[in-house]
Amino acid sequence: MDSLDEAQAAADALKVLIDSGLHRKAERYYLNLIGMIELKRKNFQTAIQYFEQAVAFLPSQLGPEYGQALFFEPLATAYFESEDLDGAQREYERIVSMSTGRLIYGDIFAKSLYMLGKIYEEKGMKDEAIEHYEKFLSLWSEADPSISEMTDAGKRLTSLKSQ
């Protein structure tokens, strides 16, 4: 709800619960939340450090129930917003390469295609950008056309194809 103070209080309470529990790898939830707070504050490098620590706590044998996309997506966003296109590309590609995770987090999968389109476009990789915008628009063909990513991807695709 855009209240960083409330988010910080929730993170502090979560940390107390985790520290008193048996599952140390649950620390990933705390680190992810703190990373999101730092991302909202536009402290990109600090956010990236927290997100990378959170990812390091993910179990080695991942099933979709672990929600790995929920950890990779904010990391990718932090890289993108810090203008580290290579880091963002690496993390978004990790999301789109997930097999079963896309079943539960299809929205994150689809938006990752859109973001990869933006990254490739910024890198001057026109064909790759077109491919990812088309995949994104195809997946969300039945979505509300007023969704900002839908209108933006459509405009960007039209512009790239007219060049």
- Mean pLDDT, as a whole number? 90
Query: What's the quaternary structure here?
Result: single chain
What is the CATH topology descriptor of the largest domain?
Serine Threonine Protein Phosphatase 5, Tetratricopeptide repeat
Q: How far apart, in Å, are the first and last alpha carbons?
A: 41 Å
In the CATH classification, which architecture of the largest domain applies? Alpha Horseshoe
CATH class of the largest domain: Mainly Alpha
Count of discrete structural domains: 2
What's the count of strands? Answer: 0
Number of helices: 9
Are there runs of 5+ residues with pLDDT below 50, and where?
Answer: none
Structural summary, described in words:
The protein has about 160 residues and is an all-alpha fold. It has 2 domains: about 1-55, no CATH class; about 60-163, Serine Threonine Protein Phosphatase 5, Tetratricopeptide repeat (Alpha Horseshoe), CATH 1.25.40.10. The protein contains 9 helices and no strands. About 35% of the residues are buried.
List keywords for this structure.
single chain, 163 residues, mainly alpha, 0% strand
Write the layout of secondary structure elements.
Elements: H1 4-20, H2 27-40, H3 44-56, H4 68-81, H5 85-96, H6 101-104, H7 106-122, H8 126-139, H9 148-161
Helix pairs in contact: 1-2, 2-3, 2-4, 3-4, 4-5, 4-7, 5-7, 7-8, 8-9
Short note summarizing the structure:
With 163 residues, the chain is mainly α. It has helices at 4-20, 27-40, 44-56, 68-81, 85-96, 101-104, 106-122, 126-139, 148-161.
